[in-house]
Design a protein that fits this description.
The chain has helices at residues 16-28, 47-54, 80-85, 96-101, 106-118, 131-135, 139-154, 180-195, 199-204, 215-222, 239-248; strands spanning 5-9, 37-41, 60-63, 90-93, 122-127, 163-166, 206-210, 229-232. It is built from eleven helices and eight strands. The chain is an alpha/beta fold. It starts with a strand and ends with a helix. The chain is globular and about 45 Å long. It has an eight-stranded parallel barrel, surrounded by six helices. The chain has a single domain (5-248), classed as Aldolase class I (TIM Barrel). The chain binds 1,3-dihydroxyacetonephosphate. The site of 1,3-dihydroxyacetonephosphate has 14 residues, from strand 8.
């Protein structure tokens, strides 16, 4: 049985006061969350404050990105060892905003996946197609390509310590959610691909849906057999909404 994971991607939002208030709200509502694991991924600069607030709680935290290198002359970057030093459990890699705004290609994403694992972090690998790609019926080939680069670099065994988030680009921050059937179809495709490589790894890996997930659509999405939780953007910035999704996850 896969434990649902509900992870908040705060993106570039909030200051220290916002983060503190948001975490107070989340911590105050945890008693109503039955089985889901919760995690938040704040902007790097807020991680120390988040780490001290969440230490000793069941809520985990992670980075939204990391560099491919472990240290050195890479101005402006943050490395896996630094995230680990601040108690991170997770690192998001290959978010579509990183791919499209910062030119991260599949090769860089695969290196970041490895850099996370090398430092004891669990990568949350994001995959997903654009609107044009869906219109061209290219969803599966895009996801195949995005997964294959990581599989070729690190092997199927590496997915025993990873999470995959399916985030259709057209659903991110748009208020348009994939229907549960559409999302399930892609999740089943991803799991089916992994089954062909290692059935045990495929059965254990958590596949999250991301893209305008909200308290009122989360239950139906997470009820799908291959959807094991959510990677939440906008709705993770309000404790009530984030908790609402966590409760819907069971
Ligand atoms: P929204 O929930 O705001 O659509 O963002 C999803 C996302 O990109 C999470 O990584």
């Amino acid at each position: 049985m896969r434990q649902p994971l509900v992870a908040g991607n705060w993106k570039m939002n909030g200051d220290q006061a916002d983060a503190s208030k948001l975490l107070d709200g989340i911590l105050a509502g945890l008693a109503d969350v039955k089985s889901a694991e919760l995690a938040v991924c704040p902007p790097f600069i807020l991680i120390p404050a988040v780490a001290s607030k969440l230490a000793g709680s069941p809520v985990k935290w992670g980075g939204q990105n990391l560099d491919t290198h472990h240290s050195g002359a890479y101005t402006g970057e943050v490395s896996g060892p630094m995230l680990k030093d601040f108690g991170c459990t997770y690192a998001i890699v290959g978010h579509s905003e990183r791919r499209s705004y910062y030119g991260e290609d599949d090769n860089v994403v695969a290196m970041k996946f490895g850099a996370a694992q090398d430092n004891g972090l669990t990568p949350i690998l994001c995959v997903g197609e654009s609107l044009e790609e869906r219109a061209e019926n290219a969803t599966e080939s895009v996801i195949n390509r995005q997964l294959d680069e990581v599989l070729d670099a690190h092997g199927i065994a590496s997915f025993a310590n990873a999470v995959i988030a399916y985030e259709p680009v057209w659903a991110i921050g748009t208020g348009k959610t994939a229907t549960p059937e559409m999302a399930q179809e892609v999740h089943a495709y991803i799991r089916g691909k992994l089954v062909g490589l290692d059935a045990g790894v495929a059965a254990g890996i958590r596949l999250l849906y991301g893209g305008s997930m909200k308290p009122d659509n989360a239950a139906e999405l997470i009820a799908q057999p291959d959807i094991d939780g959510g990677l939440i953007g906008g709705a993770s910035l309000k404790a009530e909404d984030f908790l609402g999704i966590a409760k819907a996850a069971g």
